[in-house]
Design a protein that fits this description.
- The complex is a heterodimer of chains A (about 525) and B (about 40).
- The longest helix of chain A is centred in the first third of the chain and has 38 residues, at about 105-140.
- The radius of gyration of chain A is 22 Å and the shape is globular.
- In chain A, helix 5 (about 60-85) packs antiparallel against helix 13 (about 250-280), helix 7 (about 105-140) crosses helix 21 and helix 8 packs across helix 16 (about 305-340).
- With about 525 residues, chain A is mostly helical.
- Chain A is built from 23 helices and no strands.
- Chain A has helices at about 10-15, 30-40, 45-50, 50-60, 60-85, 95-100, 105-140, 145-165, 170-195, 220-225, 230-235, 240-245, 250-280, 285-290, 295-300, 305-340, 345-350, 360-380, 390-420, 435-455, 460-485, 485-490, 495-510.
- Chain B is an all-alpha fold and about 40 residues long.
- Chain B has 1 helix and no strands.
- Classes of the chains: A mainly alpha (about 525), B mainly alpha (about 40).
- Chains A and B meet through helix 5, helix 6 and helix 13 of A and helix 1 of B.
Chain lengths: ~525, ~40
Amino acid sequence: MSGMQLHPDKDKQDLNKFGYAQELMRSMGGFSNFAISFSIISILTGAVSLYGHGLTYGGPGMMGFGWPLVALFVMFVAASMAELASAIPTAGALYHWAAILKNKRWGWYTAWINLIGQIGIVAGIDYSVALFADPLLGSVFGYHSTLTTTLIAFTVILITHGIFNHIGIKIVARLNDFSAWYHIAIVAVLVVTLALFTKGGLNPVSYLFDVGQTFSDKPYMFAFLIGLLQAQWTFTGFDASAHTIEETVNPRVRAPWGIFTSVAYSFVFGFVMLAFVTLSIKDAGAATGADNAFIYVISEALGGTFGKVILWLVTLAMWFCGLSSITSFSRMMYAFSRDKGMPGSRHWAEISKKYRTPAKAIWLSIVLSFLLAFIDYLIKTANPDAAYTTIAFLTAVSVVGLYVAYGIPILLKLIATSQGRFQNKHRGPWHLGKYSNFIAIVSLLWIAFICVVMVIPPNEIAGYALAGMIVLLIIMDFAYYKNHFPGPQAALGTSMEEILKRERELEGKSSGGGMPFQA
Amino acid sequence: MELALGIALLAVTCLFAVFVVKVAGSNVRNFDESKYESFLGK
């Protein structure tokens, strides 16, 4: 993807300039960096688990118009973030960018908002896996899926992700690489099968762009906006390419390509998949009333057995998605703790000397994700008639949290550029030149719009939850962090001697396999 | 009409992706390392 030479030592030196030692193992190539974001976006997770949501609110036109509309604007956001990743290649990414573009307090708030979004995305993804896996396991082992069994399945899935992430970036990177091809293969199988074997043939192409039909009680335009959650949630998590930047060789080129191309390819493959699934719909009303609209449509088009096979295949794709999301979340938390931004930072910034992974941060990310879903479980148990769905709640929290965190550094870079602090010489190799500011402004407008859309009824509970968390952050900030958070600027004072000493310590004790800086 | 609008939207989205790839790709190829300076926020 680049004509630039690979210089692992140069990558390390770039990181050292920010005052950080090369603690994580730098072994990811360009495809692995792309694959981690592509796996978290996971068209087989977001677009499938929220297919019923999109169809219920926006009808078939949600797939024809909603998906490309969201993809277009998300590409603006991804391009703006890619520029930042190229300029400031550190694992803290969003928060580190905000901290050095403005000040440490902006960084601190960005980190926490990002963290809230990350909790939401991990919980949302793994809850999706549980929603698919639990009824499947129930049919094998003869039990009926309930809220409680779903929560148990969710917990087991989280633990498996924790174990794989703990034992090393190499195995996770290999699984991510496989996951990217797996996603493409499943989409190809699905599309070809639907094209050739749909009972009674496919609907005319115009059906895909049929607007005005909603299966909700809302007016169509309003319902269409609510339905955008399907695509918007799918296109989250591509910041993973930036969070794994300290594990990527030639990161100033590969990570930005990873961010942008993961969104672009997801748009293409996702659209093809959604188009064929929607064109095979026999009865949209019945599909929206089914437990799982996606499986209902597939089963009606191809028969129940094939529907079940697809269900297993999609569940595995979702599992890969959750695996990658824990990697991204833990790196973000590791980087933030490295700068002492969290309670107990000393622990979360600790690196497993055996595996060169932020082991404690990995397990903390699992506990936090579990807690978010567990709180929702308690609310649902106490109030079984609650109008919202758990998955819509978790996904709305993650969309707003992540996109606000994406937007803050984009805004701060615009301001820093207008003030002359961020100049052309600071741009990394991957940049948008004279189009940079325009693309950043469009990104910010979209983020503002989507943050409102994601918390309007019936998802207002996500808005309340986010507002509550923001209030808590403000209290934490004024009570302690305002005066005690050193921020990434403090790391700039670290001497090269200390940095090299730390690197030597880890190199001597690492047994994760392979050289730390190998390409 | 809706079909035409839908196809137009798809075309715009694809063209934007291609545009970004071309612009960024060209900048990566022509990058001059000697002019680069890390932004440390100091």
